[in-house]
Amino acid sequence: MHHPVLNTWEKSNDMAAAARTVCGGPFAGRSLKAVMGWDGVVIWDPDIDPVDMLEAYLRRVAGESCGQCAPCRLGTARLCDIMERIMDGRGDRADIERIRSLASHISLTAKCDIGRTLARPVLDLLNTYEEEFTAVIENRRPVRRGVYVHVVTAPCINACPSHVDIPAYLENVRMDRWSEAMAVVRKDCPMPGTIGRVCVRPCESHCRRGLLDEPLAIRGVKRFLADREMNGELVTKAPTAARRSQKVAVVGAGPAGLSCAYYLGTRGYACTIFESQEGPGGMAAYGIPSYRLPREVLAHEAAMVEQLGARIQYGVTVGKDIRIEDMAAQGYGAVFVAVGAPESSKMRCEGEEAGYRCFMTGVHFLAESARGRKPVEGRRLVVIGGGNVAMDCVRTARRLGFEDVNLLYRRTEAEMPADPQEIREAKEEGVIFHHLVAPVEIIARDNTVTGLKCRRMELGEPDASGRRRPVPVPGSEFVIDCDVIIPAVGQVCVVDCVLPEEDVLTRWKTLVVDQTTFQSDRKAIFGGGDCVTGPATLIAALAAGKNAARFIDQFLQQNECKSDTTDLLMALAESQGVFDPDETFAYPGQTDRAEPFVMDPEVRINSFDEVEGGLSAAQARAEANRCLRCYRVLMAAVDR
Questions:
Q1: Could you give the CA distance from residue 634 to residue 640 in angstroms, rounded to a whole number?
Q2: How far, in Å, CA of 219 to CA of 596, rounded?
Q3: Number of domains in the chain
Q4: What are the E-state strand segments in 11-157?
């Protein structure tokens, strides 16, 4: 029997169209027949049996219940019993009302969102297909069994590029199961000490707790676990597989490269990482100052990768000392390119190509400072830019002894892409911000910087980024006297130095790869991180390395790279979004967020000691207790 198409997904006018869009991208040739989840139901294949679909969904929800509240623990089990009775031909007409009543009761009384989001899709399905349920009960109509896949997500998980199961590790911290919590983290994040300090926290901006009072200190709890691991207070062992015979080469020991090698190590592969610098971490080491990310943290996390069988060869530049073309002959079955974006973008300012002394890019300035050097001398310094690199430059300059530190940004503070915490702490350290100002010309005498000619700007119509375009104000030029100019307006990829073939590079010199499998047109070459996306976040680079490792394994074992239906379903969840910024709560302002100790500004500018401390065990436990456990179940019917 064919059933009518159904679409009750609240926040999408056409969930089916969204699914078809996803299927038409990296999942071409794969199909979804129906979707059921927290926000409704979509059935666009008339052969789907709604009775079977409801039974499968309830069974999945019951399996995800944590069991810590009676409504969800007992109620979902009861719902499964009722559906089993209906499917076996032992149901009665009153069972339909029992399902309605019980699902509604669970949604009203459950403590977490596994139960609280149950009623909407269940009632949608029952109300639309009540005749079908009645026919199964009264006429014992046979139920056609389908094949289903599911994913479990949450607003914070969905926002995290690596989909770390944040509620799960918070739950373990709440119960003082630290090793178990760290095992959850390491499943999707191999550098928790680094991420626990410098992640830009997309998860926290999508934390539903923030709509009630304040977002959870997710990054802080992750750092708490990482610090305990470094101190030996907890022990985690990465799962390892039998040693594989194939070898994998990784180009770059930055976050993406280390992540790929870590997860390949858990799958049994011995990796060789070729790194041109003298130490691990890439831009995390040479672009993030030690007052934010101490070098011993990176060293510890690189050592964890080596413990899984990776070997890091420092001081080796691929493309110069060794060529990718030669790696196959040396026994490498696959290559993962993760060279990042280590060069600086141009300001398009007159004089920046003149070679003036005391003009230095932000990337170079930070790298030299990370090596313990003072790259330039002077008292007055100007940094141009509004991102985290610009913030790192001005804050580093204060620690190097520059007295007059200025930051120029051509838009307003509201448009600055830098982390608000970095902006706030830079101001506390005495950095002077100049908004709506753009550089025009570098002024020099005797081939040495003496000033910067600037122009006032005003905001016009939005540009391609969605931000209002800065427009010059006629006749508004002025000069800032300075000894040093540091542009930090963006970064550039250098994949062309490693892999010069034009057919696998874009005009922006990024590597072209499949967005799901990370495989390039040269089948044995994969890539991820900034060299594929352009400059992005550290957690996105870690996610790319993790996901690429999975498909490199598939390529080496099966000689193919194919996504599965779980990839498809997660992509669909991402396309629809999970976080609802307009959601309201009845009793706001209930708890306060745990905040770590931060060194006083007048003290911290005198050294590169770490500025921010970690959470205490009591703080971490209390913070974990604030989690609302906002899990969502999304299930789809798929082809057999």
A1: 18
A2: 11
A3: 3
A4: 32-37, 40-43, 147-153
- In angstroms, what CA-CA distances link 367 with 372, 456, 469? 9, 31, 31
* 478: containing domain: 344-490
**Which CATH number covers residue 141?**
1.20.1440.230
What does DSSP say about strands 343-344 and 380-384: parallel, antiparallel, or unpaired?
unpaired
- Say whether 7 sits in a helix, a strand or coil: strand
DSSP code of 106? H
Same-domain pairing of 422 and 440 = yes
Q: Measure the CA–CA gap between 237 and 411, rounded to whole angstroms.
A: 47
DSSP secondary structure string for all residues of 322-359: B-GGGTTTTTEEEEEE-----EEPP---BTTTS--BTB
| SS3 call for 573 | helix
Output the six-digit token pair for 619: 């703080």
Please give the model's pTM, rounded to 2 decimal places: 0.93
* C-alpha closest to that of 135 among 191, 91, 180: 91
Do 348 and 337 share a domain, yes or no? no
CA neighbor of 435 nearest in space, from 418, 411, 458: 411
d(CA 116, CA 120): 9
Provide φ and ψ at 522, rounded to 5°: -90, 100
**How far, in Å, are 134, 524, 569 from residue 517 at the CA level?**
45, 12, 15
- Asked if the structure places residue 623 within a domain, the reply is no
Over the chain (640 residues), the average pLDDT of each successive run of 10 is: 70 58 52 88 89 96 88 92 93 95 94 92 94 93 90 95 97 96 97 98 96 96 97 86 94 98 96 96 96 97 96 96 92 96 91 95 96 95 97 98 97 94 97 97 97 96 84 96 96 86 79 94 95 94 98 96 86 86 85 95 97 97 95 89
Task: Give yes or no: residues 417 and 292 share one domain.
Answer: no
End-to-end CA distance of the chain: 18
Distance CA 36, CA 9 (A): 9
Q: Indicate the DSSP class of residue 413.
A: G
List C-alpha distances in Å: 466 to 210, 413, 461, 535. Answer: 24, 15, 9, 18
CB of 87 closer than 8 Å to CB of 96: no
Q: Decide if 398 contacts 405 (C-beta within 8 A).
A: yes
Asked if residues 612 and 596 have their Cβ atoms less than 8 Å apart, the reply is yes
Q: Quick one: CA torsion of 35, 41, 42, 47, rounded to 10 degrees?
A: 80
Separation between Cα atoms, residue 84 and residue 76, nearest integer Å: 12
Q: Which residue matches tokens 């010059």? A: 472
Q: What is the token pair recorded at 33?
A: 């027949």
The answer to whether residues 130 and 33 belong to one domain is yes
Where residue 514 sits, what CATH number does that domain have?
3.50.50.60
User: Does residue 533 lie within any of the structural domains?
Assistant: yes
